[in-house]
Amino acid sequence: MSGYCDSAPGHPVHASYHDTEYGFPVSDDKVLFERLALEIMQAGLSWEITLKKRPALFAAFEGFDPAVVTRYGEAERARLLADAGIIRNRLKIDAIIHNAGIICGMQDSHGSFGGWLDTHHPLDKAGWVKLFKKTFRFTGGEIVGEFLMSTGYLPGAHRDDCPIQALILAANPPWRRQSR
């Protein structure tokens, strides 16, 4: 995403995400779930819109706690669809609620969503996309690729000459580690 390294620094919306989150390794399930949900919400929209709505999405989905979100029923769906502060798309909202349940299952089977990701690491993008499509809802190639780059499971979040890339390399993201 070389263009992001050119446009994000100093930008009022993108700078903080680019400089402190994008591409850094993530292990916390709530953060992983939030990142997946944000990528789902972004589909068909600009990343800037999604980042601007991030605080409202965080509040609406109660901190992206998968154990809470998986219990959402029709009342919570109606609340979310009526919330003008978020991206109100029934298919995306339903996918996020469904995916919360999948993540809770991964917490039981693998200890965490991160544990599930680590179990399957390393895969190339095509392998990850196939696995995500089989496992989650609303996870096409762009969503999966951006989610995995944003959380350190795939390289490519920053150009090699971007100063943030050195910080990411120092954090030893999963894509730099050998496993399996």
Automatic annotation (TrEMBL):
GO molecular function terms here?
A: DNA-3-methyladenine glycosylase activity; metal ion binding
**What does the record give as the organism's lineage?**
Bacteria, Pseudomonadati, Pseudomonadota, Alphaproteobacteria, Rhodospirillales
Recorded source organism is Oceanibaculum indicum P24
InterPro entries from the UniProt entry = Adenine_glyco, DNA-3mA_glycosylase, DNA_glycosylase
Q: Where does Zn(2+) bind?
A: C5, H18
Q: Which GO terms describe its biological process?
A: base-excision repair
Residues that span the membrane, as ranges:
none
- Keyword field: Metal-binding, Zinc
* Top-level taxon in the UniProt lineage: Bacteria
List, alphabetically, the Pfam families matched.
Adenine_glyco
Q: State the name under which the record lists this protein.
A: DNA-3-methyladenine glycosylase I
